[in-house]
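NIPA like domain containing 4
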Amino acid sequence: IVSDLSPQVPSNVTSTSWKERFRQSYGFYIGLGLAFLSSFLIGSSVILKKKGLQRLVASGATRAVDGGYGYLKDAMWWAGFLTMAAGEVANFGAYAFAPATVVTPLGALSVLISAVLSSYFLGESLNLLGKLGCVICVAGSTVMVIHAPEEEKVSTVVEMAAKMKDTGYIVFAVLLLVFCLILIFIIAPRYGQRNILVYIIICSVIGSFSVSAVKGLGITIKNFFQGMPVVRHPLPYILSLILALSLSTQVNFLNRALDIFNTSLVFPIYYVFFTTVVVTSSVILFKEWYSMSVVDIVGTLSGFVTIILGVFMLHAFKDLDISQTSLPHMHKNPTPSPTPEPTVIRLEDKNVLVDNIELSSTPSPEEKPKVFIIHS
């Protein structure tokens, strides 16, 4: 009925509209490809940096966790650093072409790539609960990002500066900065080498500032190519300084975490906390809660609880030897029948011994007499 009521469209018009739709959405596919490339590069960079830190320990130099910077002279570590930088550039380009609700969940692929490559090149392994915890973390982060509301449109540097001058965001940024300084100067020297969460939380909190700076610089680059006078505005220079400081701090503490703890644990936990802090910062900076529905609120809370459960499984059961072979099987093997025990006559049982002698000494008509010898 609908096809009869609708007017007939010529075939050439249909092909033109299909080409136009493809031409309009090719940017989305470019962003999707850049997101996949970014995940592969970032996941591989962790393996290269870990190999460089292992070579540093084998040479007897001061470890990164003890304040040493010998990894700056290692070619393998620099290969990992440049690979991670290339991955971040690809991720930056992905955010420019595709929406964040698509790009951010694809960052979970770097966790899986890192876990697979670490099992081949670093000899590390996760038990069954660790693998399930990794999958739960990725699923929870994906649900949390999917139900997060869309960002408010910010197209100029002036609008971005107005957003960053908001009182709520300033209070949030100051609280994050104070919390991070407490972790760096008080908690990290005492518990950093024993608790895997200390260094990772520092990287995640600093990462929220780096993501805000990257978004602001992305808007600056767009305005520059649009011919706007962004060079005279002080915000791009401030954001560049924030980005340089945050990236150097992240690299330092991420190296310390990789130097002590298992790569298969460091990278998933870092991804979970980083995603959580970044989403929270975006909600406060862009006032995203105004567009949240009840379904989105429930989905966000459910994703956050799922992330907590996944982190607990990763961290609490990492030392248990649990694999798929240790699980109970579906088919039970038939139990063999018990073998009959031989009859043993003890010398202490005199009555039984005498009765057996008397019965045996009486020959049957079909058998010949037998001789029994008793050794005392």
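thats it. Confidence is low (pLDDT under 50) at residues 1-16. Residues 150-291 form one domain. bye
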